[in-house]
Design brief:
Oligomer: single chain
Radius of gyration: 20 Å
Shape: globular
CATH class: Alpha Beta
CATH architecture: Alpha-Beta Barrel
Keywords: Heme biosynthesis, Lyase, Porphyrin biosynthesis
InterPro entries: ALAD, ALAD_AS, Aldolase_TIM
Distance between the termini: 34 Å
Catalytic activity: 2 5-aminolevulinate = porphobilinogen + 2 H2O + H(+)
Strand content: 15-25%
Function: Catalyzes an early step in the biosynthesis of tetrapyrroles. Binds two molecules of 5-aminolevulinate per subunit, each at a distinct site, and catalyzes their condensation to form porphobilinogen.
Number of helices: 12
Subunit structure: Homooctamer.
Bound molecules: ligand PBG
């Protein structure tokens, strides 16, 4: 008499072909988005020390970055600007000839509808103090004054041809104010990705190098406390009510519980951002010989998908899209 239960669970894991039959979640290239850094005033790509393999690109290179990503089947590129000059109001963000708005135009021309063009909508790369909004006299971040600049930044990005705006500033009311400004100017087709559950995270460290952030201090008065899960769900619900087309959880890997809860509650597609620190940890551990690079990348991404993300922003988007094309299989 057998002491095992009737159904043997290992039966379906016996061979790669049997395992493929039972795979619940797949990575899909069209649902990967590649973040791209564009730096003003350089004429060749510069490596980012804390993100091995990621570069700051000159504006002239944007067309080929876009074409390469589109050829690999990547679903979108998310553009971040690194301006040569910053000021207290973040003027470079709203100027039509600001680096990010120029990059959007170059990307839109190269994309030819094959890949979606997305832009970060936040002031931190453009302000000399490095905060995501304007500062009040007492040094605090002024929510409502910032919204007015975000609305102008959104219009500049829409004029340049962005199809999805990534609202990453964590000001209250930003989705409603930007939606109204766009609709009022006839940009009703521009979609809004709300970085809803965006945590005040140490995992953004390498990104601050990538955009040469000048921030002193932290963003805890507007980004979420890492200890709070329920609040991430509340942010997503409020952004949906304000008109967000997509909501995001960020970082991804350390916040998979929040991702599950947002994915359960959301009535719009859910995105997750595998951030710079998540990228750097795997790259550096692999370089040190501690882990298998490709398997760890694949596992980190499928975990994000399993938790409920439809779309994933990842610095590996192009490479992983190429693996998918080549039929690479980690089973
Ligand atoms: C804000 C923004 C940040 C990231 C994306 N958008 C930085 C921050 O909030 O401090 C971080 C992305 C990453 O770490 O990969 N514009």
């Amino acid at each position: 008499m057998s002491t095992f239960p009737e159904r043997r669970l290992r039966r379906t894991r016996r061979t790669p072909a049997m395992r493929r039959l039972s795979t619940e979640h797949h990575l899909v290239a069209a649902q990967l988005v590649l973040p791209v850094f564009v730096k003003e005033g350089i004429d060749e790509a510069l490596p980012i020390a804390s993100m091995p393999g990621v570069m700051q690109h000159p504006i002239e290179a944007i067309a080929s970055v876009v074409t390469d990503a589109a050829d690999a089947g990547v679903g979108g590129i998310m553009l971040f600007g690194v301006p040569a000059v910053r000021d207290a109001e973040g003027s470079g963000a709203v100027a039509d000839d600001g680096i990010l708005n120029r990059a959007i135009r170059a990307a839109r021309d190269a994309a030819q509808g094959r890949i979606t063009v997305q832009a970060d909508l936040c002031l931190d790369e453009f302000t000399d103090h490095g905060h995501c909004g304007l500062l009040a006299a007492d040094g605090s971040v002024d929510n409502d004054a910032t919204l007015e600049v975000y609305a102008r930044m959104a219009l500049a990005q829409a004029r340049a041809g962005a199809e999805v705006l990534g609202l990453s500033g964590m000001m209250d009311g930003q989705v409603a104010v930007i939606r109204a400004a766009l609709d009022g100017a006839g940009h009703t087709d521009v979609a809004l990705l709300a970085y809803s559950a965006k945590y005040a995270s140490a995992y953004y460290g390498p990104f601050r190098d990538a955009v040469e952030s000048t921030l002193q201090g932290d963003r805890r008065t507007y980004q979420l406390d890492p200890a709070n899960g329920r609040e991430g769900v509340a942010e997503a619900m409020q952004d949906i009510a304000e008109g967000a087309d997509y909501v995001m959880v960020k970082p991804a890997g350390p916040y998979l519980d929040v991702l599950v809860r947002v994915a359960d509650a959301a009535t719009v597609p859910v995105w997750a951002y595998q951030v710079s620190g998540e990228y750097a940890m795997i790259e550096l551990a692999a370089r040190a010989g501690a882990i298998d690079r490709e398997r760890t990348i694949a596992e980190s991404l499928v975990g994000i998908r399993r938790a409920g993300a439809d779309v994933i922003l990842t610095y590996w988007a192009r490479e992983v899209a190429e693996w998918i094309r080549a039929g690479k299989d980690f089973a």
